[in-house]
Every structure is written in C-alpha cells, then in structure tokens.
Design goal:
With about 260 residues, the chain is α/β, with parallel strands linked by helices. About 40% of the residues lie in helices and about 15% in strands. The chain contains 10 helices and 8 strands. Strands 1-2-3-4-5-6-7-8 form an 8-stranded parallel β-barrel, surrounded by 6 helices. Strand 5, helix 7 and strand 6 form a beta-alpha-beta unit. The structure holds 3-methyl-2-oxobutanoic acid.
Length: about 260
Amino acid sequence: MKNHKINILKNKKNKKKIVCLTSYSKAITKIIDKYCDIVLVGDSLGNVLYGLNNTHTVSLKTMINHAKSVSKGIKQSLFVVDMPKNTYNNINSAKKNAKEIIRKTNCDAIKIESNNKNYSIINSLVNSNINVMGHIGYTPQYKKKFNIAGLTKNDEKKLISEALQIERAGAFSIVLECISSKTSQKITEQLKIPTIGIGSSKNCDGQILVTDDMLGLSGFYPKFVKKYANLKKEIEKGVKNYRKDIINKKFPRNENSY
Ligand code: KIV
C-alpha cells in the first residue's frame, strides 16, 4: 500500500501537478486530506505551534505525538513525517529513529534535510525499506540565516549535484525550498523523481505550503506565501461575538443547557 502510494506520486511527474500541505493535527488533516497528494508533519511546528525561533530543538517525541494525531485523520494522502534535527546524524541513529516514527505513527515516509553530506544515510534508510523524501535549498535545520538559493552559477551547480545525489541515494521525491526559478527548473528537468517547491516557483512538479501560513493564521507571510483565507480575522470575529453574547447574557441559552 505504502509503495503503491509512492508509485502513484512518482508517476505524476510531467503529467499532473502534485498538491502538498503541512498538518500537525487530526482536525486539520481531516479537512485537507482529500485535496492533497502529500500531507507532511513538518518540524515547522516548532515555529508555528510552539513559538520557537527555529526548528533546532524540536524533539522526536513532539514529532511523533503530532504525527499520531495526524494519523487519525488521514485517509488517502501520502503521509510524510519530518525527522527533526540531530535525529539522523549517523546511519544507526537515523535507522533507529526513522523506524520508531514509522512504528508509532504508521506514516508512509520520512523527510530529511540535506547537509550535502548525508547521502549515505538516505541510502541506508532506503535499503532498509524506508521511503525517504529529501529537502534542499533553504534547509532550516542547518542554516542560521534565511537566503534564496541557486542565484549564482556556482550555487546552481552545487544544488543540481546535491539533488542528483539525493535521487541516486534512493529518495522518492525532494523538497526545493526557496530556490530561484531558473535553478528549480533545471533541477526539475534533470531529476526523474518529483520536485516539490516551497518558494521555488511554478517550475517544480508540485507545491507545498505551511497550512497555517496559507490560511492566514500564522502571521508569517513572506513573498512565496499566498493567503487563501484569513482565519485570524474569522477567529477574532467568532471570539468577539462569543464575548459579546456572554456579557449580554445571550449565551448560553436554554438550547445550550441541560
Ligand atoms: O517543516 C516543514 O513544514 C517543511 C515544509 C515547509 C516543506 O519542511
């Protein structure tokens, strides 16, 4: 079943765009699942839910707990879970931690960020029948400062080589984060596996955004985020009305009482 879903995804390359979003809970997953090819439990939850400045201290336990919640709402999308920083520093820990995530959450695949060196780790996970998604460009676990990748010839060459090595290591797909349009196009053309862009232009095979960003809940709106709803405004409206009703003794009514 897992590999069937992976094959369906891979077959979309050059045929149909791939739709992906993040989720950290059952409730959101139940809403987005039917519209997505991939639901990712991203370690962006460190910033988005826990108010951290970066993803560096997100633990394996936190990722597993949120992925368990997501597993209760997912029916059809490919279910991918991020491995947090320092949980795949060597082959043994990567295998042990990836297996723990899969055993406890029943996810289809894990995602790991590239540091230009961990190709053999990807390869050993794949050889242990673990489906791996790569992640290059702006990789928040390894970069201190935000930057757009692939703007120079030299950077472009490095990124293409990185992407090809990740493909060779056996990854089924790769996230391109904040990579210039031209370089994203070249990577997408040279790879056989699908590229999933975030801030990396329409030239990728698919797109992903952090759900809280695209629904206008997180307050984080860089240029690459298109806001498809304004949940902040909607929530505020609801809460204001709730407050008004309580103060004016309009809630609870008899129909809300036992
Ligand atoms: O952590 C995350 O949500 C991600 C996506 C932004 C790709 O890695």
